[in-house]
Amino acid sequence: MGEAEGQKTRKERTRRQFDNEFKKDAVRLFESGNSSLRQVAKDLGISKATLSN
C-alpha cells in the first residue's frame, strides 16, 4: 500500500499554533452553552481533542 500522492507523512506536517486570543474565544464559544464541544471544534476547524486540551 503506497501513500497517496499529495498526502504528507506525520513528520512532514506542520504543527498549527494558536494565539491566546483564539484559545480564549474558543473556550468562550463552548462555555456559552449554545453549541456542543464537537460543534465548536468543527466550526473552528480543529479537532475535538485539541479543543478539550
Automatic annotation (TrEMBL):
A Gene Ontology BP annotation from the UniProt entry: DNA transposition
One GO MF term attached to the UniProt entry: transposase activity
Taxonomic lineage: Bacteria, Bacillati, Actinomycetota, Acidimicrobiia, Acidimicrobiales
Organism domain of life: Bacteria
Pfam families with a match to the protein in the record: HTH_Tnp_1
Database matches in InterPro entries: Homeodomain-like_sf, Transposase_8
The name this protein goes by in its record: Transposase
Organism this protein belongs to: Ferrimicrobium acidiphilum DSM 19497
